Every structure is written in structure tokens, then in C-alpha cells.
């Protein structure tokens, strides 16, 4: 059933029993929506890049999504049992090769590039990179198995051979750069100390508190300015389209402690937007071991990463993430390079929902990813993948609406509701039934479920 190899961006990869990348997923490779200058993803990219300008930052993109498990996980310090490595969460091309799950997979290569260009472009000590990333996940209006991330980093040279010895000098250099970034007057909540010994530790064998404080201050001001820029544009656009009813909302942001395997200390930046705190990005002080392994042992710095679709949905008022992939002129014609316009839905076609209920086979193991006790593993993301393979972009949402275990037989019953809806036309009931029958059959074929 599985092909002997997969062709991706002109290269051929042999498959094995790790392979779970489907043709449906591969059909998205190479669209490079972020380069279509009138596309909302490209407009959002430009807006962010404008905050990280030449010559300090090079602004890059990475077209080939195929990376090694080393690039995506090992080099970044992901432990062997990290859930992100699981076949239920990640698209494997084969045992050693995945579709990148985040742009951080390219960190090492960009750090190495900074080192290589040290003589020819000494001022370029930072970068941004945008790329398509791939994750097996739920199906709903804000999740799509392919989305875009943008990542950035900035490094400082540490003057002498013993970097800790020279940390006061490094801190002074970072502070001098901080002084060049204009401050802003948006309220910031930042209740935690920069360094917390348990929750957000200093890399004490490599860094002094003083330099990490300076880097954190530079990181925070840079990223605050970026999100303030984005959300000021968003609230102007929202206010303009409301015909003056809506005052541009006063912005506020807050810093939350976070954890990433490749930064410490780490944070998330949240923005208060239309009544909710939204998580916008993750960031932190880069793990020195990663820099040591990336040919830049005598540099220190920060990195951040964010999802582009979430931001673009807010900026342009785009209600469904599938729309970004639309080739419909009624969608595409609404956006113009450099402009934040509010999307006017061209129509909302009727939804057609259908339920599928089934008993799992007695041997099925739910929850975890690996089959403890020899049962057949059953993971919700595998249901999503079946639905995606059959319905593609005609499915808006899949949700578990009922689940119970029979008190006597201990067999588990599940019921999923699949919402079929095209963004572009009205689906007939026959079309929805046709897809739904195939989903039912494939659940039987792949998992041995008993339909109810
Ligand atoms: N790669 C992280 C993610 O996908 C985001 C991140 C990038 C965090 C860089 C810190 C530094 O969630």
C-alpha cells in the first residue's frame, strides 16, 4: 500500500514503516504562499520582516520542508521521548527524515551561516526565516496540517577566550544596542524575574546573570515593538472597517514564563485582543550548547518563533484557516501588498454534518502513542488523517462528541462529528455521503473498528 519512495521538491526518499506522509499532505509542498506578494501570508511576513531590517538581519525563506530528525529534534536538545517525535504528531518521510514541524529546524544552519559570513558580512548577526511547517493535528477552523512559521535570532560576539570572564563587556555591548531601539508606551505586564532557578534557569556554566539580563531586555523590547506594530495595524483596520463605531482598542501585552528545549530562560509573549489574552510567540536565550555545536561558540543571543496564520487571521479577519490555500479569486482579489484590509466573506455555504460512531477493537490502546501491552494503538490524529485524506479541504471540523466504556465488556465506543463544508460552493448531500461512507470504511480497514 505504501509507495517505495516519495518524491518531494525533486528529490526521492525511500519509505519505511515510519512513513506516514500522504500525497494529500505533499500536494501542499511548493506553493510558497509567503512569496505571493498580494497574499495575506506574504503581507504579514513583510510586516514582521520590516521590524528586523538589513543589515543586521537577513530575511530568508526555506522552500524544502524535508529535514532530518537530527535537525528537527536532536540538535535542538529534544529528549528521545519527547511527544513531538511521535508518529501521531509528526509527518515522517522515513525513520530519519520528517517534514519540519517548526522553523527551528534551521537554527543550526543559520548560526553556521553567520559564522561563515563573519568576514564578508560582519554586521549581519541576525536573521528571520519563514517556511511552511507540518503537524498532524485536529481539524477545525484554526488548525491545518500545513501552516507557516517565522523565526528570528540575533547573536552577539563575546570578546575574549573565556566568555564568562568577559561577560560584563558583552552585557555592555548588548545594552548599547538596546539603547538604539526606541522604547514604546504600551503597558507591559512582566511579573516574573528574568531568571528563576527552577522554572526558568540561567545556563550558569556558560552565562552570567548580567549578560542574560541584558539579552532578555533586548529580546523583550524588540519583540514588544514587533507585536505592537502588528496589532496597531490590526486595530486600525478593525476600527476603519467598523465605520467609526469601534475605537482602536488600547493594546496591552504580557510576558509569561515558558519552556523550550533549545532556550533558557524562555518566555511567551501574549497580547490582549478583543477580550482575550492571545499567545503570539515563543522565545528565549539560545542554549549555549546549540551555539557551540553550530560553529559560533563565542557568541550569545536570543531567538523567537511564531505562527503566521494566527496573526494573519486577526489582521485580515480571516475566519477559516483553509482560506489561505484558496485559489478562488473572490478570496485572492481582496488583498494587496502592503495593505491591511478586512476580509469580506463572499458567502457561507451550508454545512453538512455527519456522525460516525464505532466500537474500538478490544485490543486498542488509546491515549499514548506507542502500543503498550501489544494492543493496536489508536490515536485521534489518525482519525483526522483518514478524514483529511478523503475529504481534504471539504472538511471544516472534526470533533469527538461522545465517548464511553461499556461497563461489562470494557469496550470503548466513540462518536465523531464531521462537518463537511466547502468554502467555495454548496456541497450536495450525495457528495457528503460519498465521503462519509469512505471514512467509515477506512476506519474499519485501518483500525478494525465495529461501526454502530
Ligand atoms: N519552535 C518553537 C515552536 O514551534 C518556537 C520557538 C522558536 C521558541 C525559537 C523559542 C525560540 O513552538
From TrEMBL:
Subcellular location: Mitochondrion matrix
GO terms of biological process kind: phenylalanyl-tRNA aminoacylation
Residue intervals of the Aminoacyl-transfer RNA synthetases class-II family profile domain: 45-345
SMART domains: FDX-ACB
PROSITE patterns per the UniProt record, alphabetical: AA_TRNA_LIGASE_II, FDX_ACB
Residues covered by the FDX-ACB domain: 347-452
Molecular function in Gene Ontology: ATP binding; phenylalanine-tRNA ligase activity; tRNA binding
NCBIfam families xrefs: pheS_mito
Recorded family membership: Belongs to the class-II aminoacyl-tRNA synthetase family.
Protein name (Swiss-Prot/TrEMBL): Phenylalanine--tRNA ligase, mitochondrial
Species this protein is from: Penicillium argentinense
Amino acid at each position: 500500500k505504501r509507495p517505495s519512495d516519495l518524491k518531494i521538491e525533486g528529490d526521492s526518499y525511500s519509505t519505511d514503516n515510519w512513513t506516514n506522509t500522504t500525497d494529500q499532505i505533499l500536494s501542499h509542498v511548493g506553493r510558497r504562499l509567503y512569496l505571493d506578494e498580494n497574499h495575506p501570508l506574504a503581507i504579514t511576513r513583510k510586516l514582521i520582516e520590516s521590524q528586523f531590517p538589513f543589515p543586521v538581519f537577513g530575511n530568508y525563506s526555506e522552500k524544502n520542508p524535508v529535514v532530518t530528525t537530527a535537525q528537527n529534534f536532536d540538535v535542538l536538545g529534544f529528549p528521545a521521548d519527547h511527544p513531538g517525535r511521535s508518529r501521531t504528531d509528526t509527518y515522517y518521510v522515513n525513520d530519519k527524515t520528517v517534514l519540519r514541524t517548526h522553523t527551528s529546524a534551521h537554527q543550526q544552519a543559520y548560526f553556521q551561516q553567520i559564522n561563515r559570513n563573519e568576514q564578508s558580512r560582519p554586521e549581519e548577526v541576525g536573521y528571520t526565516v519563514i517556511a511552511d511547517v507540518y503537524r498532524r493535528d485536529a481539524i477545525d477552523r484554526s488548525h491545518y496540517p500545513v501552516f507557516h512559521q517565522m523565526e528570528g535570532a540575533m547573536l552577539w560576539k563575546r570578546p575574549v577566550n573565556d566568555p564568562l570572564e568577559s561577560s560584563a563587556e558583552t552585557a555592555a555591548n548588548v545594552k548599547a544596542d538596546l539603547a538604539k531601539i526606541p522604547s514604546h508606551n504600551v503597558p507591559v505586564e512582566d511579573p516574573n524575574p528574568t531568571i528563576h532557578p527552577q522554572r526558568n534557569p540561567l545556563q550558569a556554566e556558560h552565562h552570567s546573570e548580567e549578560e542574560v539580563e541584558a539579552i532578555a531586555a533586548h529580546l523583550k523590547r524588540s519583540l514588544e515593538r514587533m507585536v505592537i506594530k502588528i496589532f496597531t495595524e490590526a486595530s486600525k483596520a478593525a476600527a476603519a472597517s467598523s465605520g467609526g463605531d469601534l475605537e482602536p482598542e488600547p493594546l496591552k501585552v504580557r510576558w509569561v514564563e515558558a519552556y523550550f528545549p533549545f532556550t533558557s530562560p524562555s518566555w511567551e509573549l501574549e497580547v490582549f485582543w478583543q477580550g482575550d489574552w492571545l499567545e503570539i510567540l515563543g522565545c528565549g536565550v539560545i542554549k549555549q550548547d546549540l551555539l557551540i555545536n553550530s560553529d559560533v561558540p563565542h557568541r550569545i543571543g536570543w531567538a523567537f518563533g511564531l505562527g503566521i496564520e494566527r496573526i494573519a487571521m486577526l489582521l485580515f479577519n480571516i475566519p477559516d484557516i483553509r482560506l489561505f490555500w484558496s485559489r478562488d479569486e473572490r478570496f485572492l482579489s481582496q488583498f494587496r501588498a502592503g495593505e491591511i484590509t478586512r476580509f469580506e466573506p463572499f458567502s457561507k455555504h451550508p454545512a453538512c454534518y455527519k456522525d460516525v460512531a464505532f466500537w474500538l477493537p478490544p485490543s486498542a490502546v488509546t491515549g499514548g502513542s506507542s502500543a503498550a501491552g501489544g494492543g493496536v494503538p489508536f490515536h485521534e490524529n489518525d482519525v483526522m488523517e483518514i478524514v483529511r485524506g478523503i475529504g481534504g479541504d471539504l472538511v471544516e471540523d472534526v470533533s469527538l462528541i461522545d465517548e464511553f466504556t461499556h461497563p461489562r465488556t470494557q469496550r470503548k465506543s466513540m462518536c465523531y462529528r464531521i462537518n463537511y463544508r466547502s468554502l467555495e460552493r454548496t456541497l450536495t448531500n450525495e457528495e457528503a455521503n460519498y465521503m462519509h461512507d469512505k471514512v467509515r470504511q477506512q476506519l474499519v480497514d485501518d483500525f478494525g473498528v465495529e461501526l454502530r
